[in-house]
Design brief:
Layout: H1 4-9, E1 15-17, H2 26-34, E2 38-42, H3 49-62, E3 68-73, H4 82-91, E4 96-101, H5 108-113, E5 117-122, H6 125-134, E6 138-142, H7 157-165, E7 172-175, H8 181-189, E8 194-197, H9 199-202, H10 211-219, E9 225-228, E10 236-239, H11 242-252, H12 257-264, H13 266-275, H14 298-328
Helix pairs in contact: 2-3, 3-4, 8-14, 11-12
Protein name: Oxidoreductase
Organism: Rhodococcus pyridinivorans AK37
Keywords: Flavoprotein, FMN, Oxidoreductase
Length: about 325
Amino acid sequence: MRTRFTEIFGVEHPIVQGGMMWVGRAELVAAVAEAGALGFITALTQPTPEDLVREIERTRELTDKPFGVNLTILPSIDPPPYAEYRQAIIDSGVKIVETAGFNPADHLPHFKDAGIKVIHKCTSVRHAVKAERIGVDAVSIDGFECAGHPGEDDVPGLILIPAATSKLSIPVIASGGIADSRGLVAALALGADGVNMGTRFMCTVESPVAHEVKEQIVRNTELDTKLIFRTLRNTARVATNAVSEEVVEIESRGAEFGDIAHLVAGARGRKVFEDGELDAGIWTAGQSQGLIHDIPTVGELVDRMVAEAEAIITGRLNDIAGADRAVRA
């Protein structure tokens, strides 16, 4: 399944494992690369830029295939040293970066000078158009179904993906609500050049999150997420649990961030992923949980998606086209 994305970024399949806090580590990223897809180490999961360098080296010990690093730029009272993380990526010889959050304009010249291709994650067409204008090589467009921050426009993928692809000339990666071959085929039909999956890759054997989290994803349905921070205009989609329900309830009465900060601390979410305590904090998951019914290896997942996607295209869709031609005749 060759697309502009696979050609430009040098991977076999048009499938991406995007950056996920506490999840994008060497074991998962290397497994994705070995399966012929594109995986991203999450830079800020690593405590320091030096730790990121070591994680990149550890990934290279596990695979010689292409992989990238995600650098998410977010507002913070005490921001991490973004320039130092950026330099660690450049010095390590990484050739693909996924940026997310704020406009990457300040970082883009440094990456471009180092020959690095940049994919920028967006949640709206207007942001995607701006990202193309400042020189990114591709955009990943997040529909409302996605885990994490879907933006404030609430536009689902069936609308957002073709709206974006009709306005852009660079490759578009469809993200949000995709977990299987049907999502891959649909995204390609909507004009995308590939798909990005987070929740689905989180629920694989090589994913570093606790097995209890993976089992919960399998048990969950498409209804088992909560939208938090809605009243703060910083919407995030997370898994339903005691903590996310409490956050939503507090927000319903009117709240400032300080009223819920103790519930949504990142250290608590990390405890969920590392210790499997499902109600220890909030943890990100998308509506695609309703499409996830097993915990395969990454290789099994990617092989299955590609094989089934090809079968849909050459089988069912071809049969429909053939039937239409017969009726017209």
